[in-house]
Amino acid sequence: MVTTVRQIMTPHPECIRSHHTVMEAARRMAVLGVGALPICGTDDRLLGMITDRDIAVKVIAHGKDPKATWAGDLAQGAAITIGPDDPIELLPAIMVANRISRLPVVDSGRLIGIVARCDVARAMPEMRVADLFDALPVA
What we know:
Elements: E1 10-11, E2 16-17, H1 22-32, E3 36-40, E4 46-51, H2 52-60, H3 90-98, E5 102-107, E6 110-116, H4 117-123, H5 126-135
Parallel strand pairs: 2-3
Antiparallel strand pairs: 1-6, 3-4, 5-6
């Protein structure tokens, strides 16, 4: 039986460094086939997340140059996170309340995993999953 976030997270997620460009982040997302990357500082601390939507709406739509915009510039405020030993039952409420489809897993300030909406779907009872998918934006 799955009971903790650690059991369903994707471990060792790749970060984009805050001093890398948005273009580098977009290329990395394309290579990895993902729609979001954690933004980490040089000390490996999580600063935030960058999504393909952030790139489209906050950079391209505003006429900014993705080759001259830092990924760290898109990290706004403290990232919403969860701990590896937290119960999975917390995930739907956190994701819905914050309208996020991916949740970084942090242990002692270090990023150790990512939980995506699809991870929750595989681990949670059907009723909760339906509610989660209905409440979150398409990722």
